[in-house]
Amino acid sequence: MIRIGLLGAAWITPMAILEPAKLLPDVEVIALAARDPNRAQSYADEHNIAHVEPTYDALLARPDLDLIYIALPVSLHEKWASRALVAGKHVLCEKPLVMNASQARNLAKAAQTSCKSLIEAFHYWHHPYFKRIMEIAQSGELGQIRQITGRLHVPVPVRAGQIRHDPAMGGGALLDLGCYPLHMMRSICGMEPVITSATGSIGPSGVDLSIKAKLTFSNGAQGLIDCAMPETGELFGELIIEGKHGHLHASKPILPHLGGVLHIDTPAGNREEKADEQSSFFYQLKTISSAIQNETPPALYVDDFIGNSVALDAIRTAAEI
Q1: What residue numbers bound the domain in which 246 lies?
Q2: Of 20, 50, 70, 250, which sits with the fewest C-beta atoms within 10 Å of its C-beta?
């Protein structure tokens, strides 16, 4: 049995943890702590969480927890992930894991010292849909990969308390959204990129509202990241892989269970492959809980989150943001 404690009463937690946990008989959510104890109690009552702790430290001190899920502002991730590891807990932390590569390296040391797992919550990676994308890209069916384009536009209206518009909290399109297509490209190519150029637009609060970055990989593939936080509109995401002999278009690559479809075009013909309707968050929690119980290393670990952070820093430098 994997027993989970929640740091933060976040909007994403029901989707990311609570609902998937109901489908996994060997996973149980035990306790919660939030900055506002009254908010924590209301949240626990709403979601049938048995125990509420008055502080984050009190939650980490509980001996009956195996895994801590952190859904706090990015600026707090390093501190509380480190404390959770020191407390002897495994950690699943929302993306982006950290503000920069220096913090990533600090957490890598903490994870290695504690001998506990620290996982950045790239849930999409665990879904069979992305596994299939990687399988096709790496099989040679498309030929040598020449270009990968990842787009993610998510409307984020300006409002009081919106941390995505707060630079001190780790807001902005690059950290919040750009981390996804970057991670996809690194996973598909199996290597680290060089950032060749980047541009961005800065909003009134000081965060980047949009970013476009060009990347190159040593296998010859080029990458384009296009992410934005418009005031209005609809969530839009796509991943396009162009090879010497074929083309793949993936709709909804971040949330494939909401109707993701692969369109593959090669000399052998055109076809579509539809995504499994089970949630990517389910697959993430299933994979992580199994790894912890079997005492096996997580699929995404230290080298992965350091690599993503280094590349994000390089994009930020190139865009001068």
Answers
A1: 124-278+308-319
A2: 50
* Residue 287 resides in a domain: yes
Three-class SS of residue 69? strand
Residues 6 or more apart whose CB falls under 8 angstroms from that of 231 comprise 155, 156, 157, 158
| Cβ atoms < 10 Å from Cβ of 245 | 13
What is the DSSP secondary-structure string of 215-255? EE-TTS-EEEEEEE--SSS--EEEEEEEESS-EEEEESSSS
**Two structure tokens written together for 107:** 């957490």
Phi (first) and psi of residue 120, to 5 degrees: -85, 130
274 in the same domain as 166: yes
Give the confidence band of 83 by pLDDT, cuts at 50, 70, 90.
Answer: very high
Query: What residues are annotated to the active site?
Result: 95
Residue 303 covered by a domain: no
The answer to whether residues 52 and 33 touch, using CB atoms and an 8 Å cutoff, is yes
Full-model pTM: 0.96
pLDDT range class, residue 168, cuts 50, 70, 90: very high
From CA 319, how far away is CA 138, in angstroms rounded? 31
Q: What is the pLDDT of residues 25-55, one digit of tens each?
A: 999 999 999 999 999 999 999 999 999 999 9
Neighbours of 79 (CB within 10 A): 13
Q: DSSP letters along 98-135, please?
A: -SSHHHHHHHHHHHHHHT--EEE--GGGGSHHHHHHHH
Q: Quick one: the chain helix, strand, coil %, rounded to 5?
A: 40, 25, 35
Q: What CATH code is carried by the domain that includes residue 63?
A: 3.40.50.720
